[in-house]
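Record type: monomer structure entry
Structure origin: computed from sequence
Chain ID: A
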Amino acid sequence: MTEATGARRRGRPPRTESADTRDRILAAAREEFSARGYEKTSVRGIAKAAGVDSALVHHYFGTKEQVFEAAIEVAFAPALNAPDAVAAGPTDEVGERFTRFVFGVWENPTTRTPLLAILRSAVTNETAAAVFRRLVAAQLLRRIAAQLAQPDAELRAELAAAQLVGTAMMRYVIKLEPLASADLEQIIARVAPVVQGHLTNP
């Protein structure tokens, strides 16, 4: 650590300013990862987009991997309510609830942009994929599996998620027609029974 960096770390900004700076860095990171993917995004580029020195990015988050994890955890937060949606009703309707919830998150432009950043980075870089797997497994799929009275609940939750993520990739990332412009209710009507089968069929 250089003397200049050490001085910067000792002289921390006020709490409010720190929170604002941290949020600005996270917002810039989500934009950079979304536009460039994990490999082509750099800490220097994130810092430039946030209007701060790159040392400040390291100060708050550490490595690029840690910046990515922090950025996607915030971005992924809306999706983490999926286990509550799974549990909030009859078992024979769980597939529709789960499907409707996931596509509701994707249809919202505010939540779609950061999700695109996550998927694009995860499919092109193993480090980003590992961060994504860790987050999804620990905070989403295991919680959904806990709601299922099945011996292979984790596998079922993963298969249901794979169905939804695959459909989302084709609709929102690859934008394959006619799926990309199909009516959402039509998609839910076709996908939900498959998700239901993964979650509850013998």
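Annotation 1: The chain has eleven helices and no strands.
Annotation 2: Confidence is low (pLDDT under 50) at residues 1-11.
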